Amino acid sequence: MCAPTGGADHCITLPEAPRTSTADVAQMAMDAIVLPAPRPHTSPRGRTWVGLRTFLWIDRNTWRPRQASVAVDGQTVSITGRPTHVDWDMGEASITCQGPGVPHQGTCSYTYRRAASHQVSATVYYAVSWTCVGACDTPGGTFGPLPATTNLRLVIGEIQTSTR
């Protein structure tokens, strides 16, 4: 619609504002979600021994789904990150545990073969999926798996006996 201004007829046509793509809104939701790094634990704590089973676990409160939502241009993207497994780099080998592990027991464990000092890492992998409702150009998708890692120092000693 044009209206006369200042004694002349002028029409100014402004381009339509570009619409935000659903993929961009999904990325905004991805940027908003917090996928926490694990708090790894070992038993024995801080020091273990060659040939002794060392139990591994992360805090259970980190082993739950995390969510975030973002709404832009009539579309709402909801994103969920679910932990799937924990990879442990033990310094001399790596193992995978399907859950968070159990303090001081269970199947998530490792037995060292050599005395050393290692930086051990626990990496939780999150399967991240998203859905969109509203004026979406894509109904949903996935990111990931996405890792979150924490390190700790572990000293592995060796006990020797003599027969005299």
UniProtKB/TrEMBL annotation:
Organism expressing this protein natively: Actinomadura rudentiformis
Superkingdom: Bacteria
Protein's UniProt name: Uncharacterized protein
